[in-house]
């Protein structure tokens, strides 16, 4: 465990590439971004159940710190002998252990490589075993995430999918078809930018529906009959183009003497 924690994660190293000393660069803080308006974060219940680690839906999501989950709350675990096994189940709300955390490096828009906490890359061997003993990335250290029907599997260079051997929980890549043991999830704990829909629910749909929505919201309903202005909707289209849609809607409701805010 102590050996694992002492490993220093370095950048992606390709085979044949010369090692160069990199200079430390100070990261500039984006003050404008930090002071910008914060958006509301949508709760990902699945991520909460897994300690904040969310499921990658595309290959582009698989970068940086990740874990590989083969069954619910059971993650691929690196051993100090360069092999991998399936870790013990975690309780709800817990994330992966340090030995179950990897660093993912995009190779291109389809393939990625994974480095264990021991600083070695995951590779498929000739006998189908998956090992973590490579110092650099070649073709055998590259994996392609394949998505289908909201499920995912990791395809090796040999055309075999990464899986967990049900007999000894070892990580292998022996099958060219995806079965229950090949299905996995790559999870990330990176911060996500969530786009929040700020459009009021009353303004969903066309302008006719928008007017009905606001009538429902503000009408007094004394006789339980909805009163909608029968003038051409073209008036609303012109008002929207001029930026006076809400004023025009209020004026149309006031003519029907049905709005609670109109005299």
Outline the structure in words.
The protein is α+β, with helices and mostly antiparallel strands and 263 residues long. The chain has helices at residues 2-6, 31-35, 45-49, 207-218, 234-242, 245-255; strands at 54-55, 64-71, 74-78, 84-86, 102-106, 112-115, 121-124, 130-134, 144-148, 151-155, 161-164, 171-175, 185-188. The protein has two domains: 2-11 and 41-188, Trefoil (Acidic Fibroblast Growth Factor, subunit A), CATH 2.80.10.50; 201-255, no CATH class. Helix content is 18%, strand content 22%. Strands 1, 2, 3, 4, 5, 6 and 13 form a seven-stranded antiparallel β-sheet that branches. A hairpin with a 2-residue loop joins strand 2 (64-71) and strand 3. Helix 5 (234-242) runs antiparallel to helix 6. The protein starts with a helix and ends in an 8-residue tail after the last helix.
Show unreliable segments.
31-40
Can you count the helices? Answer: 6
If you average the pLDDT, what whole number results?
81
How many DSSP E strands?
13
Percent helix, as a range, is: 10-25%
- What is the annotated CATH architecture of the largest domain? Trefoil
How are helices and strands ordered from N to C? HHHEEEEEEEEEEEEEHHH
């Amino acid at each position: 465990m102590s050996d694992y924690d002492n490993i220093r994660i370095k950048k992606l190293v390709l085979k044949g590439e010369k090692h160069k000393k990199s200079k430390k660069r100070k990261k500039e803080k984006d003050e404008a971004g930090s002071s910008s308006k914060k958006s509301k974060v949508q709760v990902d219940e699945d991520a909460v159940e897994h300690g904040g680690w969310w499921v990658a839906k595309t290959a582009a999501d698989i970068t940086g710190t990740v874990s590989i989950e083969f069954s619910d709350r059971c993650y691929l675990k690196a051993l100090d002998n360069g092999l991998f096994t399936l870790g013990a189940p975690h309780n709800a709300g817990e994330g992966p252990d340090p030995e179950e955390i990897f660093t993912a490096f995009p190779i291109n828009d389809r393939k990625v490589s994974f480095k264990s906490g021991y600083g070695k890359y995951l590779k498929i061997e000739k006998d189908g075993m998956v090992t973590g003993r490579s110092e650099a990335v070649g073709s055998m250290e590259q994996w392609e995430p394949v998505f289908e029907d909201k499920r995912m599997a990791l395809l090796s260079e040999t055309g075999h999918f990464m899986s967990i051997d049900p007999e000894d929980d070892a990580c292998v890549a022996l099958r060219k078809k995806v079965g229950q043991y090949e299905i996995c999830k790559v999870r990330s704990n990176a911060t996500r930018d969530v786009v929040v829909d700020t459009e009021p629910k009353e303004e969903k749909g066309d302008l006719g529906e928008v007017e009905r929505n606001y009538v429902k919201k503000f009408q007094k309903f004394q006789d339980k009959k909805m009163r909608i202005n029968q003038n051409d909707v073209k008036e609303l289209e012109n008002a929207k183009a001029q930026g006076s849609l809400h004023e025009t809607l209020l004026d149309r409701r006031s003519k029907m003497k049905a709005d609670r805010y109109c005299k």
